[in-house]
Design goal:
With 336 residues, the protein is an alpha/beta fold. The chain is 56% helix and 7% strand. Strand 3, helix 5 and strand 4 form a beta-alpha-beta unit.
Length: 336
């Protein structure tokens, strides 16, 4: 049962209880890191609700199950941030709320999967709350988010939360090698690179799959690794050129800087001689120590702090990306 989802015993037990009684809550929060299976869980719930067999598990072969699995059902609405938007507004939710009162097209229910639910403005959440309090019959809302803490307490009180689990490095390594030919080949041919991918996935099976396939457009790890090495090994002129080349948008700049901060965490750990500390970026401690070169612990810490300030500006303030990256480079140069 629920073989589609690795691990996650608690979620499996809860979903089994819901489907066994054929009584799903009208609103549900599914939280967890990117790539940890939130969309998979949401699709399974939608298939269970819409399946023509009306059993405790989706049959997977009926017309409704096939449409839902292929994102082709008009009654399962996927909604989230699009076209560079940073927030979900009250107007967005009003549109969903109005649609919820229209009868289903070909299922016996309607399911709204709201990705990036933690990016809903308070006004949007309050608008959604009105329909949570008196939901139309056979209408369900699944709120997907990395963390439920940005959601209003009133929303959280009306929507039970399922949190997806992450795996240890060894658990994830075993899982991905057993299912993925590319992973098995990389483990044998280039174990250091493979272990680096495992660590960068943060314990999430979906993330490691994307990294292995090259489909993760937000992955700027190789760029972050190159820049960190330049920064630490006195190649500052090249560093400034590459920063401007890689950080062409808010998203790419945030990803690059976040990656550099993770690399610096490992370098700082090595410089503090924390042998037992788990690495988050490099395959082993010798790689982190080599990249760190002759940079002092104090300088590495100052680099990290300056990068953190810039990342906060990019994510939480309306700053010009080019100007922010230029200021970052100037600030880092002063720390050398």
């Amino acid at each position: 049962m629920l073989d589609f989802l690795y691990g996650n015993k608690k979620i499996k037990n809860i979903l089994s209880g819901f489907s066994g009684r054929r009584r799903f809550p009208n609103s549900l929060i599914i939280s967890g890191p990117a790539g940890s299976g939130k969309k998979t869980v949401a699709r399974h719930i939608a298939m269970t609700l819409g399946c023509e067999m009306q059993g405790t598990e989706p049959c997977g072969v009926c017309s409704s199950c096939r449409k839902i699995s292929e994102d082709g059902s008009p009654d399962v609405v996927n909604f989230g941030l699009e076209n560079g938007k940073k927030t979900i507004t009250v107007d967005d939710i009003r549109g969903l709320r109005s649609d919820a009162f229209i009868a289903p097209n070909d299922l016996n229910c309607k399911v709204y999967i709201i990705r990036d639910a933690d990016k809903m403005l308070a006004s949007a959440q309050n608008c959604l709350l009105k329909i949570f309090e008196e939901p139309p019959e056979s209408v369900y809302f699944l709120l997907l988010c990395e963390s439920s803490s940005p959601l209003l307490p009133t929303v959280r009180s009306r929507a039970p939360e399922l949190r997806t689990e992450v795996f240890s490095d060894q658990e994830l390594k075993k899982l991905i090698v057993s299912e993925n030919k590319t992973a098995a080949e990389m483990e044998s041919a280039n174990p250091k690179k493979f272990m680096s991918l495992i660590r960068r996935s943060g314990g999430c099976i979906g993330r490691i799959r994307a990294l292995l396939s090259g489909e993760d457009e937000s992955d700027f790890t190789s760029e972050a690794e190159e820049l960190t090495k330049m920064l630490c090994q006195d190649a500052f002129a090249d560093f400034m050129v590459k920063m401007q080349e890689y950080c062409v948008s808010r998203e790419s700049a945030s990803s690059v800087i976040s990656g550099m901060m993770t690399a610096l965490r490992d370098i700082i750990s090595c410089k503090r001689n924390r042998d037992g500390a788990e690495l988050m970026f490099y395959a082993d401690r010798s790689d982190a120590a080599s990249v760190g070169g002759t940079v002092s612990l104090r300088t590495a810490l100052n680099f990290f702090d300056r990068l953190s300030v810039c990342l906060d500006e990019l994510e939480n303030a309306n700053v010009n990306v080019g100007s922010s990256v230029t200021a970052l480079c100037a600030g880092l140069k002063k720390l050398k």
